[in-house]
């Protein structure tokens, strides 16, 4: 892990409530005995009263107590009470059809909810709820049921509504996924949310979180590369991916042995293969990654290749951070990157 930047940089980030340091830096206040996230809305301390830590455990070991406003001991998303409340309800009943009226009935302001979820996940709560409902429809289609059954399982009153929602998420209408295919797509659940797995009998071709904004475009590109022959279903590779992800999140094994098919240019493939060489529990900056592939001036090109990776976790683009230790961008959401890096710290020992 990279060291923290200078206190002056951290203090400026504290004043700005900069989310770039979420999960990477914490401030402890000597006059109160409390430590916080840098994004905490509490009144800001004077710089001479601040101590800086890379982990909540280090702040607690130094005798500081966690703040009750920003919850620094959990993932960032869990520090927002609105987010944690609604996510718990969504997990309990993923097929519920939510509306802004439901939020108002709970005493919540829809615009506040929208901002909170977009800040954490890059999309609104209602969009996430719609994607969760589509999971039921996709599973029904995979099992060979009629389209109307899939529509009802996904909680849609109309066939057109189900078809349009499915197309927005997956890039193709549902009937396209039911024909003969060379690649098979299925949904698997992880502690960080649902993921789409696309594989044939020999290799993994795509692994993405279903709420990633670029997923439909990635599916369209992959479909073009294989002549549109992507259908619903599983293969032995799907089962292997699911088993290895379970072991990874359970803390039993950080390594992935599943074979992957990397669809990219020669340069992109080199970057992705180098990402796979980064051990769990370690991170690299974009500049370090460029040096490791022998092209030290290609930092921006490395960042672009990182952003176009379509095999999340297996090709661990989340292990690339800013040179100053900040998380920087992650297509799956900074909250996931924070959680993944925290999870992998256990593998570093």
From TrEMBL:
Pfam families: Ada_Zn_binding, DNA_binding_1, HTH_18. It is an enzyme of class 2 (transferase). One of its GO terms (biological process) is DNA repair. Zn(2+) binds at residues 36, 40, 67, 70. Its EC number is 2.1.1.63. InterPro entries: Ada-like_dom_sf, Ada_DNA_repair_Zn-bd, Bifunct_regulatory_prot_Ada, HTH_AraC, MethylDNA_cys_MeTrfase_AS, MethylDNA_cys_MeTrfase_DNA-bd, MethylDNA_cys_MeTrfase_DNAb, MGMT_N_sf. This is methylated-DNA--[protein]-cysteine S-methyltransferase. It comes from Paracoccus alkanivorans.
């Amino acid at each position: 892990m990279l060291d923290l930047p200078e206190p002056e940089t951290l203090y400026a980030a504290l004043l700005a409530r900069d989310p770039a340091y979420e999960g990477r830096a914490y401030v402890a206040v000597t006059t109160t005995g409390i430590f916080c996230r840098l994004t905490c809305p509490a009144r800001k301390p004077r710089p001479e009263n601040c101590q800086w830590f890379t982990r909540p455990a280090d702040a607690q070991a130094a005798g500081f107590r966690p703040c009750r406003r920003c919850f620094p001991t959990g993932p960032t998303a869990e520090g927002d009470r609105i987010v944690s409340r609604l996510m718990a309800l969504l997990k309990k009943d993923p097929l519920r059809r939510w509306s802004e009226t439901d939020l108002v009935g709970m005493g919540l302001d829809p615009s506040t909810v929208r901002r909170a979820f977009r800040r954490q996940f890059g999309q609104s709560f209602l969009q996430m709820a719609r994607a969760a409902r589509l999971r039921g429809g996709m599973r029904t289609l995979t099992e060979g049921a009629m389209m109307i059954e899939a529509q009802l399982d996904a909680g849609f009153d109309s066939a057109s509504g189900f078809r349009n929602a499915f197309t927005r998420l997956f890039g193709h209408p549902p009937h396209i996924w039911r024909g003969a295919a060379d690649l098979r797509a299925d949904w698997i659940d992880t502690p960080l949310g649902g993921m789409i797995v696309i594989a044939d009998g020999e290799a993994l071709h795509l692994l993405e979180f279903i709420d990633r904004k670029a997923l439909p475009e990635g599916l369209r590109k992959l479909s073009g590369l294989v002549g549109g022959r992507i259908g619903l279903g599983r293969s032995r590779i799907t089962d292997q991916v699911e088993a290895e992800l379970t072991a990874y999140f359970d803390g039993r094994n950080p390594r992935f042995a599943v074979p992957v098919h990397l669809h990219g240019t020669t340069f992109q493939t080199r970057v992705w293969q180098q990402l796979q060489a980064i051990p769990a529990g370690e991170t690299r900056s974009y500049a370090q990654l460029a040096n490791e592939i022998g092209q030290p001036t290609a930092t921006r090109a490395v960042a672009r290749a990182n952003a176009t990776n379509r095999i999340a976790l297996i090709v661990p683009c989340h292990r690339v951070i800013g040179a100053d230790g900040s998380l920087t961008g992650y297509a799956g959401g900074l909250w996931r990157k924070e959680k993944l890096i925290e999870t992998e710290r256990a593998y570093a020992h």
